Amino acid sequence: MKNLSAIGRILFAIPFFIFGINHFLMLDYYVGMLTSFIPLGPYTIILTGVVMIIASISIITRKYIVQSTLTLATLLLLFIVTIHIPHLLDGSDRTVTLIALLKDISLLGGSLMIAGMNIENKK
Fold first, then answer.
1. What is the per-residue DSSP string for 58-106?
2. What SS3 class is residue 35?
3. What is the pTM of this model?
């Protein structure tokens, strides 16, 4: 069962590593997604990319896993509130926006589950 959890944890972390790299490679695309009230434009995109890369490495190596997954959960909640919901309400491509919203809700749930499992294991 531990091997299954380890595989799941690693598979959970890999997309965040790729998403983080994409924040550098596709900077203009991500800047175009920002809503007007998100500060610092490209710097915010770069910062979130760095956070995702560091968190994914942390999750894979099991170092500071609770802090990393809670940071990712917070980041995902911010994405949902500041990007996906405003885009859903402003009439953007609702299908694409809804898919991205549901993806981030799912990842948020997975992040909280991994954090919770690791908090329980420390007791």
1. HHHHTSSHHHHHHHHHHHHHHHIIIIIHHHHHTTS-HHHHHHHHHHHHH
2. coil
3. 0.88
